[in-house]
Amino acid sequence: MKLAVPGVRNQRFSIIGMLVLVFVVPFAGLIPAAAQTPASGGSMVKKHAQFSSKLIDPRDVDVWLPPGYETDKNKRYPVLYMHDGQNIFDPKTSYGGVDWGVDETMDRLIREKKIRPAIVVGIWNTPKRYAEYMPQKAAKNLDTAELKNIPISATGPIVSDNYLKFLVTELKPFIDAHYRTLTDRKNTFIMGSSMGGLISAYAISEYPNVFGGAGCVSTHWPAGEGAMIEYLKNHLPDPRTHKIYFDYGTATLDSTYEPFQLKMDEVMKQHRYKAGKNWITRKFEGAEHSEKSWRERVDIPLIFLIGK
Fold it and tell me: In terms of C-beta density within 10 A (0-12 exposed, 13-18 middle, 19 or more buried), how is residue 277 classed?
């Protein structure tokens, strides 16, 4: 059985021939450099190739628009931001040739009236994935031994604070300007798996006025020997206005997560989060650390975050 490693979730991105820069244009409805691809059930994916930033390296950004978006010009939508964007819609670009199937699952859940129609923004990763996804403030006091599970030496220093600043001050304003979004906290969510789960928990804690919910799938708590749990003890957002989803499997890399997740669950209780109301932790017996496993259960965090 292949053991998935969270630092190589990967990263099939094309730079050759892409000289398109994407800028925020102050005219809502004008969407520069967006290639459009039909998706399931009348939905579509628009690609903003090599989205530029003053804070981090450029990367592709995919925007999934729900069925009906093009016909009902007055409707506005919640937005879910997802890390490792190349892995969520298209098996051709996804790690291991299997994607999360977020477009198909969103389409099904909307038809079944289990979730509100929403926009999904997939932010592609880069070779600096670890450096961008390892929570910076959680790692700042770690010694050499504790850093052993954070293989960032090949990609430079941790830059996750800049990555989140990019999401909040560059990407979100662009999305809100060029797509019909509901811009407030209660309609803005963030989700990812493995290291993407860590950065999602970090995002909702660092920017509690921006993100109202976080989906943390197969969260890679061992990075820094659980340093993110120590950070969250003092930085979790208000349970009255936020909700957080955690899960983990029991096979491959996920088999190491349960002791950490149990500690995190105690932190959630101490902060007065209520299981089943504004917090969920799910254990999936036999589930491995892979896009295939996440595809099979992505409906659960989607319903929790943007359910009716």
Answer: exposed
Q: Which SS3 state, helix, strand or coil, does residue 51 take?
A: strand
Residues 179, 268: Cα–Cα separation, whole Å: 34
- Tokens representing 155 are 């990609």
CATH 3.40.50.1820 fits 34-306, yes or no: yes
DSSP states of 128-177: THHHHHS-HHHHTT--TTGGGG---TTT-S--HHHHHHHIIIIIHHHHHH
Q: Token digits for 181? A: 């979004």
The SS3 call for residue 27 is coil
Evaluate whether 79 touches 181 at the Cβ level (below 8 Å): yes
Residue 119: DSSP 8-state:
E
Residue in 10, 65, 60 with CA at minimum distance from that of residue 171: 60
**Contacts of 212 by beta carbon, 8 Å cutoff, 6+ apart:** 184, 185, 186, 187, 188, 189, 204, 241, 242, 243
User: For the sheet containing 34-38, what is the strand order?
Assistant: 34-38, 44-51, 59-65, 119-123, 79-82, 188-193, 213-217, 243-249, 279-284
258-275 per-position pLDDT tens digit? 999 999 999 999 999 999
pLDDT in tens, 14-69: 333 333 333 333 333 334 456 666 666 678 999 999 999 999 999 999 999 999 99
Cα angle: 156, vertex 158, 60; to 5 degrees? 80
Q: Apex CA 72: angle with CA 67 and CA 75, to 5°?
A: 95
**For range 89-94, the mean pLDDT:** 94
